[in-house]
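Here is the promised in-class demo. Please do not try to memorize the tokens; focus on the logic of going from shape to residues.
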């Protein structure tokens, strides 16, 4: 069987300026997949930055052993699909990632999937319809409310209509503008103002009065459609949903849906989870967080959107109830942690999707082994025996460092409880946060005190490279977990 793992990118990307390094390397992890399944042919077809698929240094690609690599030229869904068809795949698996300013790469991958299916290729991908709903924050908000999911109340502001008087000289009074202000005044404050098509929380602002919202909308900051949304206080979380369809499935109810217990996300001083500053801890399965309710609602969400593959969901636990903030049908910044929780590598998870789509058993081939020093036997056996939602599961902590040297990264990875590192360097950036950061994933013990000891050891061994603010946040999150256990 020939399997193609593919992803597209709509941006210009210069690998000589932006560098991404991971430990373990994608080369090693994908090589392990090829070794476990010698009876199949694997091809990676992607565009840079090729997140989750390839390592590279400048223009030099590190090709995994036993796997062919094709760098796609892009130019649109038809062109990409044709490039993939020339690789003669039996199965294609979308491994969509994200990039600024628009989180629409999954939408292009889904359009590619439609074309491939039309040519008889089995494809693991979310539908273009689901991607379009989730890409537009207004569309997602409307979908959630229409289907009875808990989410924040919001007011949509159409930029062109709001400024209609500028373009229509015959208009002396803007009725739409008056309507928008009346609706905003009925919201509970504070509110969040967000771009309807922006990536993650970039550009969001927390505003505390209706007058301040009016000032924002009348300023230069308001330059495209916006959503004014009630701010929901409470701990914020994120998780993933993995949906597997084995062979030909005509009914979504027959799909296997894995909803993972949520990871707790830290928030910034404005109460927003910032991708460049967040610390993540989990999985959390305490009874007070109503795990059964969350699992049921996310399974329902997956069925309604007809998911297939990996999707990420942002959540807030507000007034003793789960609310959905955002849906991202793609791989995510939590994917490495979720893979550890599942007891597998991300490449192996993607491979299992391909095997299932072809009607083969997910455990075909050699068992996966991440290495005894990295994943304890008790952690993996607990997952298999008691399921993902067992009480007191192995805990993992995702924490950030400033940019590190290769030697510093290797030294951190040598610690037995450090499972994953990913560093982004932007040589063209001028501001500190834009230059990049290194995130590491530690843990594997069900005891929060063990993670505290691991943090303390890292502080003692690497006092010059840690960023104290992140470590303080991590300690507060572990204290929260201990208090609520």
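The designed amino acids, position by position:
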């Amino acid at each position: 069987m020939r399997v193609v793992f593919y992803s597209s990118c709509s941006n210009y990307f210069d690998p000589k300026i932006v560098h991404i390094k991971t430990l373990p390397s994608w080369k090693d992890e994908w090589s392990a997949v090829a070794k476990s399944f010698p009876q199949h042919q694997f091809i990676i077809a992607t565009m840079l930055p090729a997140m989750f698929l390839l390592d590279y240094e400048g223009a030099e690609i590190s090709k995994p052993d036993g796997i062919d690599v094709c760098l796609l030229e892009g130019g649109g869904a038809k062109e990409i699909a044709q490039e993939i068809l020339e690789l003669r795949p039996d199965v294609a698996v979308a491994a969509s990632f994200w990039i600024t300013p628009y989180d629409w790469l999954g939408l292009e991958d889904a359009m590619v999937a439609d074309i491939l299916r039309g040519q008889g290729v089995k494809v693991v991908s979310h539908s273009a319809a689901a991607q379009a709903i989730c890409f537009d924050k207004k569309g997602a908000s409307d979908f959630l409310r229409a289907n009875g999911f808990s989410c924040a109340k919001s007011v949509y502001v159409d930029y062109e209509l709001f400024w209609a008087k500028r373009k229509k000289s015959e208009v002396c009074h803007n009725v739409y503008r008056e309507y928008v202000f009346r609706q905003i005044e009925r919201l509970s404050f504070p509110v969040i103002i967000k771009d309807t098509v922006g990536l993650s929380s970039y550009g969001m602002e927390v505003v505390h009065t209706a007058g301040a919202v009016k000032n924002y909308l009348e300023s230069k900051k308001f330059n495209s459609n916006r959503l004014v949304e009630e701010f929901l206080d409470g701990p914020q979380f994120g998780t993933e949903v993995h949906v597997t369809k084995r062979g030909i499935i005509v009914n979504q109810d027959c799909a296997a849906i894995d909803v993972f217990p949520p990871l707790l996300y830290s928030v910034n001083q404005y109460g927003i989870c910032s991708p460049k500053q967040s610390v993540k801890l989990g999985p959390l399965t305490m009874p007070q967080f109503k795990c059964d309710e969350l699992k049921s609602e996310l399974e329902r969400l997956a069925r309604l959107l007809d998911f297939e593959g990996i999707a990420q969901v942002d959540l807030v636990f507000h007034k003793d109830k789960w609310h959905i903030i955002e849906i991202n049908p793609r791989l995510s910044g939590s994917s490495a942690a979720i893979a550890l929780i599942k007891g597998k590598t991300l490449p192996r998870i993607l491979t299992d999707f391909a095997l299932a789509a072809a009607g083969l058993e997910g455990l075909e081939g050699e068992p996966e082994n991440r290495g005894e020093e990295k994943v304890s036997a008790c952690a993996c056996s607990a997952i298999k025996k008691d399921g993902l939602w067992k009480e007191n599961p192995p805990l993992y902590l995702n924490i950030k460092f400033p940019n590190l040297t290769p030697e510093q990264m290797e030294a951190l990875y040598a610690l037995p409880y450090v499972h994953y590192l990913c560093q982004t360097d932007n040589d063209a950036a001028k501001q500190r946060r834009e230059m990049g950061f290194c995130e590491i994933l530690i843990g594997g013990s069900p005891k929060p005190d063990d993670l505290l000891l691991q943090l303390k050891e890292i502080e003692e061994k690497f006092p010059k490279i840690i960023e104290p603010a992140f470590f303080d946040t991590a300690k507060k999150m572990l204290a929260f977990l201990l208090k609520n256990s």
